[in-house]
Amino acid sequence: MSHKFALSIPCNFAAETRKTVLIMNVIMIESAAFQELVGHIEKIAEHIRKYEDRQPVQPQERWLTSKEVTAMLGISLRTLQRYRDEGRIPFSLMGRTCRYRLTDVERMMKECSMSGNAERIGELHRQYMVRTGKKT
């Protein structure tokens, strides 16, 4: 069984009064049917809570600004722009600002680092001098 009620609410717009009419449907059901409906809703809520606890909570990903990334990597803003253009560092645009995941920056630092024993550094210096044509 359904009943309709009209409700009149006065509202002020630009110093003049207008009335808004809202139509509300009221549905009447027997108490036993209502209790059965509540029981179904409780079972659904219990099911959701049960599976909600199973999913591990992912830690919030930290996003860095260009200034923070350049400070971490020890590079200029122009070099960071070149890395973006070359696809060497992933980024996302949030509005008009580039943001970088901390995990991506840390991965890049790990991939670009090398062990620095004296022999390896000397070899890199020798190769640099040969490529640039400078005397050793």
Properties at a glance:
136 residues, alpha+beta, three-stranded antiparallel beta sheet, two-stranded antiparallel ribbon, 5 strands, elongated
Entry summary:
The protein is of the alpha+beta class.
Task: Note down, in words, how this protein is organized.
It is a single chain. This protein has a three-stranded antiparallel β-sheet. A two-stranded antiparallel sheet has the order 1-2. It has helices at 31-54, 66-73, 77-86, 102-112, 118-132, and strands at residues 2-13, 16-27, 63-64, 92-94, 97-101. The protein is elongated and about 100 Å long. It has five helices and five strands; from the N terminus they run ββαβααββαα. The protein is α+β, with helices and mostly antiparallel strands. The longest helix is centred in the first third of the chain and has 24 residues, at 31-54.
Uncertain ranges: 5-9
Radius of gyration: 33 Å
**CA-to-CA gap between the ends?**
98 Å
Number of strands: 5
Mean pLDDT: 81
Helix content: 40-55%
Number of helices: 5
The description of the largest β-sheet is: 3 strands, antiparallel
Percent in strands: 25-35%
Secondary structural class: alpha+beta
Listing every helix as H and every strand as E from the N terminus to the C terminus, the arrangement reads EEHEHHEEHH
